[in-house]
Amino acid sequence: MTGEAELARIGSLLADRTRVAMVLALLSGRPMSASALADAAGASASLASAHLRKLVDGGLLVVEPAGRQRLFRLANAVADAVEALLLLAPPERVTSLRAAVRGQNLRRARMCYDHLAGTMGVALAEALADRGVLVPDAHGYTLTPAAPAVLAQIGVRIERLEHRRRPLARACMDWSERRHHLAGSLGAAVTSRLIELDWLRLSEASRVVRMTAQGQRGLGDWLQVDLAGAS
């Protein structure tokens, strides 16, 4: 293979609002059926099917069998690429109160594929730094000797993450906050554990994340910070 990468092909796939809506819906990190993606994009079943075929053929989505249905997810590295592109995208025009509320909720707390983003995600990363768990560096974050004990308090075991192929603690620039939140295998593990503890809850068919009353207390006790009031 010679020549430059064919970036224009990716651009053409993201030049349609229906396809973009489907890709953004999959930033929740949960595989979704064609019908669920059609609903998320406000498209008919036949139109959604045609768009999904293009996204799969273009390498942005992967389709997997799940019983009698097929589920779609983002291909490797697509989530990071889309989140980076969101840094360049102009703000979406708000046309209704519903859209305004949804935008506020997304900015407050959302899934960036498998880790927490938004105001709350940034506040979590900064609280971990304040507790002496993380130290920002040129490559993302370095874990301190205190990290294993602090993270074990909520059931996250560093030794189970260190040998994975993906980076352990990566800094991901948050498109809405323009500050970093925690990604990598540690970001995913912490977010997953907070959901298991019912401190965070995923919204149905949405990337929006909500903190529970139990989570506000638990995170306050663990990190000595009010993430619900983070700004």
TrEMBL record:
Residues 1-93 form the HTH arsR-type domain. It comes from the Bacteria. Pfam families: HTH_20. GO terms for molecular function: cadmium ion sensor activity; DNA binding; DNA-binding transcription factor activity; lead ion binding. InterPro entries: HTH_ArsR_DNA-bd_dom, HTH_Metal-responsive_Reg, WH-like_DNA-bd_sf, WH_DNA-bd_sf. Transmembrane segments: none annotated. GO terms for biological process: response to cadmium ion; response to lead ion. This is ArsR family transcriptional regulator. It comes from Pseudonocardia hierapolitana.
